[in-house]
Amino acid sequence: MRTIRIGAASGGVALSLGALATPATAQPQRSGAAVQAQTTAAPAPTGLAYTYDAATRTVTVAWDPRDPADTLTRNYRPGSCGPTPQDPCFISSQIILGNSFSFKKAPDTAPVYVKIYAENAAHQLTGSQVLTVIV
Fold first, then answer.
1. Per-residue pLDDT for 4 more than 60?
2. In this predicted model, what pLDDT tens digit does every residue of 50-65 receive, in sequence order?
3. More confident residue, 97 or 36
4. What pLDDT was estimated at residue 38?
5. For residue 113, how many other CB atoms are within 10 A of its CB?
6. From 83's CA, which of 20, 41, 106, 112 has a CA 20 to 30 Å away?
7. Are 61 and 101 in contact (CB under 8 A)?
8. SS3 for 79?
9. What's the half-sphere exposure (Cβ side, CA atoms, 13 Å) at 91?
10. How many angstroms separate the CA atoms of 38 and 15, rounded?
């Protein structure tokens, strides 16, 4: 305990402070599992397929459920690629915790190219194969 006196020696105010905090180290120690989770990419989603509901114009994209042994995947994010499957994909900020998501699409001749990205704790993304949606 540390006491600090403020004011004149005979009638000043005394403050008592608890233990002083020690400064944090620049690099906190991490367990081997935590380091692995931040440096190892999550496995890419597999088994992508879609269904189309013409009445509601809703496309539902689904993929294989996460393997119980997969400790790296925290969530998924959808990506929309195009106008060809070789073009870059826009990765959505939407977080998906399950293994499907839906979006609206009017029936037309233009295909939509979709990728699903698995995200690990360090926000590294691993993309699936491109799924071509034609309705």
1. no
2. 999 999 999 999 999 9
3. 97
4. 62
5. 18
6. 41
7. yes
8. strand
9. 14
10. 45
- In the block, tokens 């305990």 appear at 1
Asked whether the beta carbons of 3 and 13 are under 8 A apart, the reply is no
- Enter the tokens of residue 129: 């194969």
Question: CB-based contacts of 98: which residues, under 8 Å, 6+ apart?
Answer: none
pLDDT at 68: 95
3-class SS of residue 39: helix
CA angle 113/92/57 to nearest 5° reads 55
Report the candidate in 68, 77, 72 with the shortest Cα–Cα distance to residue 42.
72
Percent of the chain with pLDDT over 70: 72
Look at the block and give the residue holding tokens 């997969």.
Answer: 70
Residue found under tokens 């996460």:
66
Please, what is the Cα angle at 57 between 54 and 61, to 5 degrees? Answer: 100
Residue whose structure tokens are 């009017």: 106
- pLDDT above 80: residue 73: yes
Measured between alpha carbons, how far is 62 from 77 in angstroms, rounded to an integer?
12
